[in-house]
Write a structure and sequence with these properties.
The protein has 272 residues and is mainly α. It contains 15 helices and no strands. Helix 6 runs parallel beside helix 8 and helix 9 runs antiparallel to helix 10. It is elongated and about 85 Å long.
């Protein structure tokens, strides 16, 4: 038996095993950051175990990991997978997001709590102001590795927004893949994200990517409606985006009609 398989070698034989106040406070702050729901809470609930966050958490992990460990080689593999999962969830509970993905994207694992994990990673990414930071990319890395099913519309919208920060095209095809019920909502979210960017090179590049997307007739209708009559009509650059879309698609006749119907002041001799 390995040392880690012996209860006393891990936990000792002292009855004084309560967490100190510093650690309790730290766990509390992590719980608050995770909307009062740690992943160990989810794991124990899935196992049908009511608990408070004490040493019992570790004992449960210990008991499941070692249960019938020596009875069959197949169980050794099961034990390793379980330990990999728990290591990943343990890291998530400590907000060590990058480290958690080292475990949770292990190909041999059956995804456990995948949508909940994606939701936590999305929240961490959206609160991270540095778009080039590793944390900002973690939801995309996890989604591409695990392909979790997403039922929550909020998680879908958050993930679409994160995709848009890095690739308008990827966000567009993601919106298409989420079914007719969510397609339009996510598509309009994509357009909103592009026009919400601060004026500059990044916005210009994203807007250019937006106006050349391979929209079908239905999507083109959504695009026009959102920027002409919907919430997007009041956004800065809405009319210019419509104009550039018409130019990109060679719809000069429609562009001329629009200019006659809604004349605009010229800038350097150009009225669009």
């Amino acid at each position: 038996m390995n040392d880690s398989d012996a209860f006393t070698s891990v936990f000792g034989n002292s009855s004084n095993v309560a967490y100190d106040q510093r650690l309790v406070k730290k766990i509390g702050s992590h719980r608050q950051a995770l909307e009062n729901n740690l992943f160990i809470d989810r794991l124990l609930k899935a196992l049908g175990i009511e608990h408070r966050y004490t040493l019992q958490t570790h004992i449960v992990g210990y008991e499941i990991s070692t249960d019938r460990y020596h009875q069959a080689p197949r169980l050794n593999t099961t034990r390793r997978k379980y330990q990999t999962l728990v290591d990943g969830l343990w890291s998530l509970d400590r907000l060590q997001f990058e480290r958690s993905l080292d475990y949770l994207t292990e190909p041999s694992l059956i995804p456990t709590f995948p949508e909940e994990i994606l939701n936590v990673l999305c929240r961490a990414s959206l609160t991270n102001k540095k778009s080039n930071d590793t944390v900002a990319l973690l939801p995309i890395a996890y989604y591409q590795a695990v392909s979790p099913p997403i039922a929550s519309s909020k998680t879908m919208e958050d993930y679409c927004q994160i995709l848009c920060r890095f690739s308008v095209t990827e966000a567009f095809f993601f919106s298409r893949a989420q079914g007719s019920h969510n397609h339009r909502v996510l598509f309009e979210k994509l357009v909103h994200c592009v026009l919400s960017k601060s004026v500059g090179d990044e916005r210009g590049q994203c807007a250019l990517e937006l106006v050349v997307l391979p929209l079908n007739d239905v999507e083109q209708g959504w695009f026009d409606d959102y920027l002409r009559y919907g919430k997007g009509s009041k956004m800065s650059g809405a009319e210019d985006t419509l104009t550039m879309r018409d130019i990109a698609n060679g719809r000069i006749d429609r562009l001329c009609v629009d200019r006659k119907r809604q004349p605009r002041s010229k800038v350097d001799g150009i009225d669009w």
